[in-house]
Write a structure and sequence with these properties.
The protein is of the alpha+beta class. It has two domains: 94 residues, PAS domain (Beta-Lactamase, 2-Layer Sandwich), CATH 3.30.450; 121 residues, PAS domain (Beta-Lactamase), CATH 3.30.450.20. Helices cover 38% and strands 35% of the residues. The protein has a five-stranded antiparallel β-sheet, sandwiched between helices. A five-stranded antiparallel β-sheet has the order 6-5-9-8-7, sandwiched between helices. Strand 7 and strand 8 form a beta hairpin. Helix 5 runs antiparallel to helix 6. InterPro entries: PAC, PAS, PAS-assoc_C, PAS-like_dom_sf, Sensor_kinase/Photoreceptor. It catalyses: ATP + protein L-histidine = ADP + protein N-phospho-L-histidine. GO terms for molecular function: protein histidine kinase activity.
């Protein structure tokens, strides 16, 4: 695989700070795009094994000298009798920041319960605290109530099956608890809330186990990604949020 670029979109050029003439018929290695060449090795390994790469997090060097976290997907395509790779990268800088925010909240809880409560309500993503043992909801922030279109009294003391928030993804809750049992933390899982009025809200979900008042609790953060999902559908070839390249293989 020589990784020669045959076509790129404007977003890719914006990230690299180069013109199309500068990048076409050159490889990503020549352009110095990878922060870590082991990412490229992993991509090649997955393509050779499965023929597809799905949501692999890699680091991409940009024109301003920063390293941007990219969620990278790719697959083989046939074009004019030749095998090529169609690759799409989604900048997840903002999503990573939300995950960091969850970690910061958990750390603040250890230091100051009052400060935690202030941050809890100010966070622009939905936050839910659930008792680990009985799975009941012990606290939520206003953003969760807005997204779920519920009142506080509708959710406190209830389990998530009782408020039907996961009805569109019935296995998701069990999968999260299994992962938390193993790792005590989950990050950036794509899922969906079902609001009380029937609205389906696509989310990116992270959670971790914390100690609160001597009991194990799960604090979860859900970021509404409706806008990003809509952009992905509308702008497949030239999009604000995606980096795209067609790569020639020998």
């Amino acid at each position: 695989m020589n990784g020669i670029l045959l076509e790129v979109n404007d977003r890719f050029l914006e990230y690299t700070g180069k013109s199309k003439e500068d990048v076409l018929f050159r490889s990503a290695i020549d352009l110095g795009i990878y922060d870590n060449l082991k990412d490229r090795e992993k991509i090649i390994e997955l393509l050779q094994k499965d023929g597809v790469v799905s949501n692999l997090e890699i680091g991409m060097k940009t024109a301003d000298g920063n390293i941007r976290p990219i969620l990278f997907s790719a697959r083989f395509v046939e074009s004019f009798g030749e095998k090529k790779i169609l690759a799409i990268g989604h900048d997840i800088t903002e999503i990573r920041e939300y995950a960091q925010e969850l970690e910061n909240l958990a750390n603040e809880l250890v230091r100051s319960k009052d400060l935690f409560q202030k941050l809890f309500q100010l966070t622009p993503s939905a936050l839910v605290v659930t008792d680990w043992e009985n799975r009941t909801i012990t606290d939520v922030n206003e953003r969760f109530l807005e997204m779920a279109k519920m009142n506080r009294e509708d959710v406190i003391g209830k389990t998530t099956p009782e408020i039907h928030i996961w009805d569109k993804v019935p296995n998701f809750r069990m999968e999260v608890y299994e992962l938390l049992s193993q790792k005590k933390e989950v990050k950036n899982l794509e899922s969906a809330y079902l609001a009380s009025d029937g609205t389906v809200v696509p989310i990116l979900y992270s959670a971790r186990i914390i100690e609160l008042d001597g009991r194990k609790q799960v604090i979860s953060l859900a970021t509404d990604i409706t806008e990003k999902k809509d952009q992905k559908k509308k702008e497949k070839n030239s999009t604000k949020n995606f980096v795209l390249a067609k790569i020639f293989l020998k």
